[in-house]
Backbone:
């Protein structure tokens, strides 16, 4: 077993963790979902959701990762018991399955940085045609998928301190600066006031609307990465005395703060530059890719200084994508290192597998959409497993011994216990809502596993993976948690 690595400081760990949480969803999902669900009303509920769901799950992940000092399989096998290594395998697999297509999306952002530098976003350009010509050219999409994986490999190969910590200390401040530049430019555009009002207005009608709460809790889960095992993986390399409570509060609310800045960069731009109110509403109602690569690109063509701002915007999006991609690659690396692999060899094989398995998503948007739906929603199951792991170990024991450890800066009260017991109920409600929506999308053939976003495709793919891992539990335990000396600072 290689010598255990650690982040050089608590600040380094927190910065890397924020960079893990901040991804493309902060920039292209939060603004449109917030705008569609009451603006300021949605934001208030989101802050509540982060406190109730995200922070308790992030603290739980930090405890599990730091106690085990192993990859997902080994850590969950230790924490829950030898019969539950399959849970850690599920947690790790979901992250890696997302990595397969997330690298493709990150590749899109890199391509659009190049488009922006080339000055493509000028008056008269057909941004829909530009998008379609790129995404229907497999040679290009696969190439930029390769570039995204190569960038992640370059960082992760260098290790935790010299790689992940060093580069996230560059990526995160740059991302923040780029988004602030975009936000300042957006809010100073003539007519931007309508967008600011739209983003922050309070409406009691939305406060009592169940859908607003479901959307806010979903955004909290997907934005912060709570319960996904990404934070758990980074926690392997945190120092034993690093504070749990205050660190996770900083990570979670920093993620939301960056999302709000992204909202200020996008929503006022849409309202200021849109030729009509209908166009603005149409842009904000588009899907993630549509808002970002079609509508925003078109709005840049009419904005004063739009060429410069388009470079700033897509650079920020690329930094967000790469910083999150690093954590997904590291999940694979950490598990292989626990199994006895050399870290550099583990990085090589993880990235090669990521590139090869990501090719179908680079080739077909339908396949990418299917994988995004299946494994994006599967993250909710991972959140439930995280809460169950804490219950099995002992919620009060986790709080008093591992969160409120000796020297802890912030002492966490019993509200943590309440939230852990509430989380499975809340997450199951959100999961049920997504399944209900998928049935509404396919009322006649919701059962068909070959539909892009059907209930059938969820059940088939989830069931197959869980069955395989349960049957392979003994092998997983032996291979990913061999009899080796514990890492320093572990148990």
Residues:
């Amino acid at each position: 077993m290689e010598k255990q690595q650690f982040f050089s400081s608590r600040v380094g760990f927190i910065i890397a963790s924020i960079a893990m949480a901040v991804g493309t969803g902060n920039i292209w999902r939060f603004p449109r979902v917030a705008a569609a669900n009451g603006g300021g009303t949605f934001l208030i509920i989101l802050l509540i959701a982060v406190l109730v769901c995200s922070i308790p799950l992030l603290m739980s992940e930090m405890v599990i990762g730091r106690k085990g000092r192993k990859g997902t399989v080994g850590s969950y096998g230790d924490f829950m018991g030898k019969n539950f290594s399959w849970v850690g395998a599920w947690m790790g697999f979901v992250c890696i399955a997302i990595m397969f297509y997330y690298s493709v999306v990150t590749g899109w952002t890199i391509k659009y940085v190049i488009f922006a530098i080339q000055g493509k976003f000028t008056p008269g350009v057909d941004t829909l045609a530009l998008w379609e010509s790129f995404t229907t050219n497999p040679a290009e999409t696969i190439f930029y998928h390769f570039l995204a994986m190569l960038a992640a490999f370059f960082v992760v190969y260098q290790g935790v301190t010299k790689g992940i910590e060093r580069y996230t200390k560059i990526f995160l401040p740059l991302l923040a600066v780029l988004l602030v530049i975009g936000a300042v430019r957006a809010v100073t555009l003539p007519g931007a006031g309508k967008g600011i009002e739209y983003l922050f207005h309070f409406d009691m009608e939305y406060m009592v609307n169940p859908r607003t709460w479901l959307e806010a809790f979903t955004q909290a889960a997907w934005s912060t990465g709570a319960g996904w095992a990404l934070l758990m993986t980074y926690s392997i390399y945190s120092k034993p005395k690093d504070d749990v409570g205050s660190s996770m509060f900083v990570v979670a609310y920093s993620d939301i703060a960056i999302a709000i800045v992204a909202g200020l960069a996008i929503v006022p731009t849409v309202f200021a530059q849109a030729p009509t109110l209908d166009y603005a509403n149409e842009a904000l109602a588009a899907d993630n890719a549509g808002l970002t690569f079609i509508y925003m690109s078109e709005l840049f063509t009419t904005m004063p200084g739009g060429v410069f701002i388009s470079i700033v915007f897509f650079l920020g999006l690329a930094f967000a994508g790469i910083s999150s991609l690093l954590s997904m690659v590291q999940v694979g690396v950490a598990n292989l290192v626990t199994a006895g692999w050399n870290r550099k060899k583990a990085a090589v094989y993880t990235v090669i597998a990521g590139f090869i398995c990501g090719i179908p998503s680079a080739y077909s948007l339908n396949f990418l959409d299917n994988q995004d739906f299946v494994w994006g929603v599967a993250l909710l199951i991972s959140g439930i497993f995280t809460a169950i792991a804490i219950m099995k170990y002992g919620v009060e024991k986790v709080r008093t011994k591992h969160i409120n450890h000796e020297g802890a800066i912030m002492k966490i009260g019993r509200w943590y216990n309440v939230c852990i017991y509430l989380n499975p109920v809340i997450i199951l409600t959100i999961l049920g809502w997504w399944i209900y929506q998928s049935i509404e999308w396919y009322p006649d053939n919701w059962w068909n596993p070959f539909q892009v976003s059907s209930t059938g495709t969820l059940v088939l793919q989830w069931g197959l993976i869980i069955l395989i891992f349960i049957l392979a539990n003994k092998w997983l335990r032996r291979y990913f948690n061999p009899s080796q000396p514990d890492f320093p600072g572990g148990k």
